[in-house]
Write a structure and sequence with these properties.
six-stranded mixed β-sheet, seven-stranded antiparallel β-sheet, mainly beta, 12% helix, 3 helices
């Protein structure tokens, strides 16, 4: 009797185990593969791979990095008929693909891919790369990545002057840049922690070494016809308040916040996904960075442009500015940089800066040499 009970019990356990396995097989997405040792059960990854970074490294070369091993498929590039404005969404894509992936080269770990296109991209044009990413578990992700045509001769700019929160009508906030190396502005973008989603994308224009470029923050009512972007050699087109006949004027076409009393701003090469310059300032002593400020400050510190950027104590301090209607933050070493890095020599990717390079100017001079 006892022996029979044991056999029945064992059978019950076996049947229960088989039933449990069948149930688990139906609710748990798993896969298997045949190896020399037998069948290996692989728990499925139900998450699609994510794209970590994307860069444009040549007229026909794109680079893409993912969170895991990938295979790319159905890659096409289409060209926009419209133009980008302040980083906003573009529209009117060409129906026919502009280019396809001629060749895809994967890294040893299969997480990075270099894509060689069938056609060369053109500076000043906007494109979208679309396709599908597969991981080793068969999960897929359809993606679209906007990018600018490769700029073979990018200009090199440095931040020169900033005025924020102007309280007088028509004396707008502005950020000024100095051209350290001649070239094209295509692919460059300005980002402020005060409004990180409203980045400014520079137009594809040729600029010359020694130019000052004033990017004005707002266009108020009544200024529209006079606030003209100077996209070619005539620098007298813009006649709005504080326009400069010897400096280049660019106008941001929005009236929302541009830069703030406490801010982290940076100039970035979006094609290479690299920072070109940065400035950090605070108007409150002993404060901590907010979320947006901290994220950009960390990016600046990692890139090596500002030592200990994560601490506001190391930023430029503006507590002494009572009114920003006239005064500005002005870089003091512009001419020293121009002397140190003549155009005939290669300029390093990183030119470190700190609070000592900046001062409070007695009056703002957009488009002119700093006071």
């Amino acid at each position: 009797m006892k022996k029979v009970f044991k056999n029945d019990y064992a059978k019950s356990l076996l049947i229960s185990g088989i039933l449990c396995f069948i149930v688990l097989m139906t609710v748990s997405p798993i896969s298997c593969r045949l190896t020399e040792e037998g069948i290996e059960i692989i728990p499925a990854d139900t998450n699609a791979p994510s794209i970590l970074s994307f860069s444009v490294t040549g007229e026909r070369l794109l680079n893409l990095s993912c969170s895991e091993k990938i295979v790319l498929d159905q890659l096409t590039v289409r060209e926009f008929q419209g133009e980008s404005s302040d980083g906003g969404d573009l529209f009117l894509l060409e129906e026919e693909p502009y280019a396809y992936a001629d060749c895809i080269t994967y890294s040893e770990n299969m997480m990075d891919a270099e894509i060689y296109l069938s056609e060369s991209t053109r500076v000043g044009k906007e494109y979208v790369l679309s396709g599908i990413v597969y991981d080793r578990s068969g999960n897929s992700l359809e993606f679209s990545q906007q990018f600018s045509g490769f700029n073979a001769n990018p200009a090199r700019l440095v931040l020169s002057e900033v005025r924020y929160n102007s309280s007088k009508p028509k004396k707008t906030e502005f950020v000024e840049f100095y051209v350290l190396k001649s070239g094209n502005l295509s692919g460059l973008e300005f980002v402020s922690a005060a409004n990180p989603k409203r980045k400014y994308v520079f137009p594809a224009i040729e600029v010359k070494r020694g130019e000052y470029i004033a990017l004005h923050g707002q266009v108020y009512d009544g200024m529209g016809y006079n606030a003209i972007d100077e996209l070619e050699n005539d620098l007298t087109l813009s006649t709005a308040t504080e326009s400069c006949d010897t400096g280049r004027e660019l106008w941001r076409k929005f009236t929302d916040k541009f830069v703030s009393k406490t801010d982290v701003i940076l100039l970035r090469d979006s094609c290479k996904n690299k920072i070109m310059d940065a400035l950090l300032w605070t108007s409150v002593e002993g404060s901590e960075w907010s979320k947006n400020l901290k994220e950009l400050a960390e990016e600046v510190q990692t890139a090596g442009f500002w030592e200990n950027a994560l601490s506001p104590e190391n930023a430029f301090h503006t507590e002494t500015i009572k009114s920003s209607a006239v005064k500005s933050l002005a870089r003091q070493n512009i001419l020293l940089l121009a002397e140190k890095y003549p155009e005939s020599e290669e300029i390093p990717d990183v030119i470190p800066a700190n609070a000592c390079d900046w001062a409070i100017a007695s009056s703002a001079t957009p488009g002119y040499k700093n006071k």
